[in-house]
Automatic annotation (TrEMBL):
GO terms for molecular function: deaminase activity; hydrolase activity, acting on carbon-nitrogen (but not peptide) bonds, in cyclic amidines; metal ion binding. SUPFAM superfamilies: Metallo-dependent hydrolases. Belongs to the metallo-dependent hydrolases superfamily. Adenosine and AMP deaminases family. Its cofactor is Zn(2+). Keywords: Hydrolase, Metal-binding, Zinc. This is Adenosine deaminase. Gene3D superfamilies: Metal-dependent hydrolases.
Length: 322
């Protein structure tokens, strides 16, 4: 078995962001929704920079209207996971796009998503857990609604709480109330930080939100004391190298800090973030890292082990995946 064929664990995958352009186009046609010029001449998602990406992302989600749409999306995304030998995945999904943060509507969407996940677990052997996620630029009040949705459905499928969106909007600490709600509901916590914000943003997520994982976190490399703290507190980074290159956080994979972070002793994992937006897959991520940094089977095994230990699941699931 070559190393790109090995079983993989993916901790950072946005459900809406994993929607293939064809899937969005056909729903738009079916529902007669005008999503504007979000595709290029090859039919791929088209955006100029991160902020434009967020606009295109949100335009694409407008065609995802019903629980049945999310059921179909979840099945399609998990089929792609299986094609990449992903055996366990955690998906971020925003209740804002599933009924606007209304708890009762959210439960209907979630039931459809969980149904698809159960089917795909038996059909394709992929285990999925869900991380309801607030959207930072929708603001702290909307995040409280998201946290309520997450808390009301916490259990064996909904195991975490997260935050994505525009990291330059407000501070991590502005969302402390939402994170406190999620923590009280026994949800495990992660937040996007150190992607568009610097090391300070990562430090704030750890101090002000109490997260045990960081989405991206790569710019922690800019602060030695923070690196020490991350190691000491056993915080794990959900690194998405292909996303960082596609969005221009780094120009080239050889300049990406993932290998340096790992050498320093930081626990890193590898994910795709929003694969069709970034023209990536888990197989491609593994292949590119092997080629650029010379990582071999043992390196990827260690990476998978870190991901398994950091997964937001119970020990029974962990044993089933190991
Ligand atoms: N939502 C989806 N992808 C994201 C990213 N890379 N950063 C922040 N929010 C996101
Ligand atoms: Zn992300």
């Amino acid at each position: 078995m070559t190393l790109i064929d090995m079983p993989k664990i993916e901790l950072h995958l946005h459900l809406e962001g994993a929607a293939p352009p064809d899937f969005i186009r056909s729903l738009a046609r079916e529902k007669k929704v005008d999503i504007g010029g979000i595709f290029d001449e090859n039919g791929a998602y088209k955006y100029k920079d991160f902020w434009d990406f967020l606009k295109v992302y949100e335009a694409a989600t407008t065609v995802l209207k019903t629980p049945q749409d999310f059921y179909r999306l979840t099945r399609a995304v998990l089929a792609e996971c299986a094609a990449n030998q992903v055996i366990y995945a955690e998906t971020f999904l925003a209740p804002d796009f599933c009924g606007g943060g209304d708890v009762s509507a959210w439960k209907d969407y979630l039931a459809a998503i969980e149904q698809a996940a159960q089917e795909m677990q038996s059909e394709a052997g992929v285990i999925l857990k869900a991380i309801p996620t607030c959207v930072r630029h929708f603001g702290p009040d909307q995040a409280k609604k998201t946290a309520l949705c997450a808390s009301e459905t916490a259990g064996r499928f909904v195991t975490g709480f997260g935050m994505g969106g525009d990291e330059t909007f407000g501070t991590q600490g502005d969302f402390a109330y939402a994170y406190d709600m999620a923590r009280e509901a026994q949800l495990q916590l992660t937040s996007h930080a150190g992607e568009w914000g610097g090391a300070e943003s990562v430090r704030d997520a750890i101090h002000d939100l109490g997260v045990t994982r960081i989405g991206h976190g790569v710019r922690a490399i800019e602060d030695d004391a923070l690196i020490e703290e991350i190691i000491e507190k056993d915080v794990v980074l959900e690194v998405c190298p292909g996303s960082n290159i596609a969005l221009g956080v780094y120009d080239d994979l050889k300049d990406h800090p993932i290998a340096r972070l790992r050498k320093r002793g930081v626990k890193v994992t590898v994910s795709t973030d929003d694969p069709p937006f970034f023209h990536t897959t888990m197989r491609k991520e593994f292949g590119d890292l092997a080629q650029t940094f010379g990582w071999d089977g043992a390196d990827f095994k260690a990476l998978n082990q870190t991901a398994l230990e950091a997964a937001f699941c119970d020990d029974e699931t962990r044993k089933a995946v190991a």
